[in-house]
């Protein structure tokens, strides 16, 4: 590979003291975000583009369908959406790009990474955009040709906004929620659970729609917000606790599925750990499958196999489970390398060790079924220096992690299986 074509610096510098005691992990560029209160758009590990769509040389060449009776707004669907039609009770998140005819640069845009949030009942949108958005479903991407009569008028605002000119808008409807009617929720107040329950159900419905339209990133944000609301709300009795638990099981289940779709196995494992705490993992073959899939992607083959064997006991003839087990065993076999660690840790780094490290890292990089590769603790300084060198050479990140994601506990330097697993020997 030409090193000038793709170069990535190490995400975090190496702390050799920590590496020698706590272990280390290699992974392809994949950020991890904690569940937070504000739930900003997740953009650290996603490619975002300056704008959606592309310029059009001649508007007359477009084949569009009218949205309104007068034909002031015309439309062509590029990506289908789903769910219920929008109305004034919705608050939506949109991204868009606006073009003039025969111009290569947009005159207006809102990025997907920072969408515009619009209350459809109370907003300052131009009539053309209002009509366009109301015609859309969640997850939809459409092209709209808008008349100046429902946009900027005959005068315009020269030079940026042309006078008496049609404009083209690409609009992406990222998500939609029911607009809260009673103002912000005060979670510290008693007797708030009924309201929180109602809003979480609406959010859950929106998240399911986003998932069906393959908008997994937005779906995870909606599900995470719902989880946060449920955890913050004060419960009055056991009945409310049972309702909360039932909703949390649904939310964590959907989070695990979405995170696996996004190739975020650590977050998927965290969601499965929450299901385990809610006693809804070991008797749930679907979630055991998701947990095993995530564990396989981070190279925890023994734990992944344990989950799959359990799932197959629950559903012995499930082809999806058997296919995942076959993939797991194949991936595990492909990762078995020359032993790196059965030697005196005080001996100097030799050519055999270097070759084994090179093969291990290159095979990991080329294995599409793995996102992360865990190395055990106990490497000496010279060995860690060479591992770091090999990672930089292959443009891989090298991190120390503090969490055992299949047991969901803090790292124990002596007996933590994450660092002593034989899968990588």
Give structural notes.
By secondary structure, this protein is an alpha+beta fold. Helix content is 39%, strand content 14%. The protein has twelve helices and twelve strands. The chain has helices at residues 16-22, 127-134, 193-212, 216-232, 238-261, 265-277, 285-297, 301-314, 319-335, 351-366, 381-393, 417-420, and strands at 24-27, 65-66, 73-79, 90-100, 108-110, 116-119, 141-146, 167-178, 372-375, 397-399, 403-404, 409-410. The strands form three sheets. Strands 2, 3, 4, 5, 6, 7 and 8 form a seven-stranded antiparallel sheet that branches. The radius of gyration is 26 Å and the shape is globular. The chain starts with 15 loop residues before the first helix and ends in a 5-residue tail after the last helix.
* DSSP E strands, number: 12
Low-confidence stretches: 1-48, 405-425
- How many strands, what sense, and barrel or not for the largest sheet? 7 strands, antiparallel
- Going by helix content, strand content and strand pairing, the class is alpha+beta
Radius of gyration: 26 Å
Question: What is the gist of this entry?
Answer:
With 425 residues, the chain is α+β, with helices and mostly antiparallel strands. 39% of the residues lie in helices and 14% in strands.
List keywords for this structure.
single chain, about 425 residues, alpha+beta, seven-stranded antiparallel β-sheet, three-stranded antiparallel β-sheet, 12 helices, globular
Task: Compile the SSE list and pairings.
Blueprint: H1 16-22, E1 24-27, E2 65-66, E3 73-79, E4 90-100, E5 108-110, E6 116-119, H2 127-134, E7 141-146, E8 167-178, H3 193-212, H4 216-232, H5 238-261, H6 265-277, H7 285-297, H8 301-314, H9 319-335, H10 351-366, E9 372-375, H11 381-393, E10 397-399, E11 403-404, E12 409-410, H12 417-420
Antiparallel strand pairs: 1-9, 1-10, 2-3, 3-7, 4-5, 4-6, 4-8, 7-8, 11-12
